Fold this sequence. Notes:
It contains 8 helices and 3 strands; from the N terminus they run αβααααβαααβ.
Amino acid sequence: MVGTSLKTSEFVLSLKTPLAVGAVVISCAAPRASAQDAAPPPALLAGAFSAAQAARGEETFKEVCAACHNIDEMAGARFRSSWADQTAGDIFDFLSNAMPQGDPGSLTPEEYRNIIAFFLNRSGYPAGERELPVDKAELSKLRIVALSK
């Protein structure tokens, strides 16, 4: 898939170059019809994933990914810069189409989304009560955007 290849190469390139550090949050990418129709942003910003989900993602990362990747390469400022203005759905696409190397797509959708929750957690995003959805369309509503100071 051409779109995925471009994102993959951009992500790999960004991991090899110095990155600017900036505060990033997750926001809902879907436009709001009205204040009544939309969930309040603080609820989304205060927890798009659960701590239990991030812990499951950490276990999967240790079992499947850590042989090739260090979490410090995949989270924190690098994650925030690499994925700024993209969505959790974009991250899901990249992971499920490219990882694990040599066997892409071999994890369950739940395992991929849990790894995303782990990356979010290690990148400074707060855990909440809800879990990231498995549905790609729903993940695509969660946009990672840089905040102005």
